[in-house]
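Give me structure tokens for this 782-residue protein.
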Amino acid sequence: MGTDGRECLPEQPARQRRASLREWAPLTLLTLAVLVGAGLWSAGLRGVAQLLWAAVTLVAVLPAAWTTLKQLWHRQFGVDVIAVLALVGALLTREYLAGAVIAVMVATGQALENYAQRRATRDLRALLERAPRQARRRTPDGGIEVVPLDRVAVGDRLLVGPGDVVPVDGTVEEPATLDESVVTGESQLVGRAAGEQVASGVVNAGAAFGLRARKNAAESTYAGIVRLAEEATAHKAPMVRLADRYAAAFVPFTLLLAGAAWLLSGEFLRAVAVLVVATPCPLLLATPIAIVSGLSRVARRGVLVRDGGSLELLGRARTLLMDKTGTLTAGRPRAAETVVAPGGDRDEVLRLAASVEQLSPHVLATALVRQAREQGLALAEPTDVTEEPGRGVTGRVDGRRVRVGQLPGEPPEWAHRVRERAELAGRSTVWVADDRGPLGAILLEDPVRPDARRTVRRLREAGLARLVMVTGDRPRTARQVAQTVGVDDVWAQCSPREKVDRVREESGRAVTVMVGDGVNDAPALAEAHVGVAMGATGATASADVADAVLTVDRLDRLADAVEIARYARRIAVQSATVGMGLAVVAMVVAAFGGLPPVAGAFLQEGIDVLVILNALRALGGGLSRRDVPPETRELLDRYAGQHGGVRDVLTRLRDTADLVATRPDAAECVPALRAVHRRLVDEVLPHEAAEERQLYPALAGPLGSDEATSTMSRAHVEISRLVDRIGGHLAQHEDGRLRPDEVPDLLAALYGLDAVLRLHLAQEEEDYFSLNPDEGPAAATR
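Here you go.
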């Protein structure tokens, strides 16, 4: 399959060029013919010029009339009927130049509309390509054979290799670690014990495991998701052009006015003149230009919208539904915190875990190794590494046997507290132990995108009245993310079918947009009025059924797209309204005999130029976000990179606070306090002072005023005050043990500083660092 895809690639540019030539060839030829006719007329060959113009009119009227008749047969009524009547009238009255001018305008509108429609085709290709086509089946003699998926029967024993997609619904025969986010939206890896059931479409994130088929391929979960997407796409109503919505009122008015002019004057030429002036070029030209301008702008912002109808609907949207994992969150685990046993070394625990996990393909292993390397830890080469699916990895590091994964046996008291803490925070726990027992735990999280909250605010400002998060994740985790980003409602533990039902319910009330990134989101994206896929994360299945695709891994580009879509639609409506208003005035003049057809055609051209110039305004404006100058981007890059070091100090600060809270009489309390205070003074305060001096003044332009950073400046004052408060305690304290009377105030300062500084960092990352268009969302979470 992959080879065939590579062989087809060279043909695609040629095919695209041929399609482009077919689109623009009629307009080019008709325009050339009209200009040649003008040259012949100027040379005195008026009969030949008239004949050429008549041919142009005839060439334009035949396909237009056929298309209009088909539309009327299917009970579709649009503005094209006026153009057809004007062309026919021009032929009957021998006003061939007027007919030729109308033909060029009609061809221009059609070319622009075809260009917008040709951006992509809506299909299920990637969704189907991702579906497994083969399975590894165990043979009675103990071997393994690869068979087509349709030959897998209920009861067959299969082998699912590392990274494989589970081919059919089945029962796990050995412990397995699975990434189920593609089907359920659950961001955390799930361990399945022997005897538990798994759905097709989920990914094996651990070692190979045995699976007994419970359903055949046609009846399995993944096939059901594909059918859902197909059904939703099939019954989705076709887009109605903005121009056709105006036609409902404009066309009957035009026909009545033309008929009245003919009946009252007895001159058919007046009716033709009315039709010529009424030719809806502001709708056929200005509207597509504004919409295509919008399509071009959102594409430059990293959002590919499939057609003009989708952009129009995006501009009218009132409700937005968003998936959580990979949309509002990063979609990949990150080591958030390392908790160690009493007296343990945090860096050593992380180093041991990352060293063992270096050879593991597990996605959690990647997160651990990345975190250790970002902290500058020197990883050792592990030996005797073995991996037990669903349980963890064991290996020797510097001669020491280390186990990373689940915690065997009865955990000590401190481990119970870690479990409760992880559960409350919605985090996964990876335990690190040696032969003597657990050394510590690494808490993993799927962080909220730094640009998510700002994006939600901008979407509200753009006119979206209802924002809902819909996810397959657990209620507690879902609620925490919903509170962080500020959505109106949250629906958790939704299956793909339930997501479709939710979208259908919301779509019945208002124009609805759905944003997602996984296979489980594809049916819901197809069901929504406008489906938006996070294509930069590799979600090809959801991208192929979506109406728009975010090609950059930044959620704030969705807000850009909505603002641009609303602006482009407003310009299109404005251009159409002004153009048609001027056309109505000219139609009345023509009805009274004041405008012959040729003069009316050129007057209509003048109106066209006016509305086209207005429509071109859609190429700029409409965005509430200001561009960030290059020098400010450099500052954002620099200070975003420094946040990693500040977070490391924060970790030490929290450890010290916990030590003082649990063992205030310990001899190591005062040295720990002095060490963390030294880092606060040497690293954190200079960072905050430099931001105050350099970064905040530079952000006044992009944020609109100096006042935009005033609350953050106040946070700097509070951070400095709390550091001084801790330093004051240390200045009055001799080395030794803490006195009981000073512990409460020290704890207030330590925990207060921890809370203020964490909130301050999060606000900077959400409000400031997310402004950098060159920086991905993960940058601020380093």
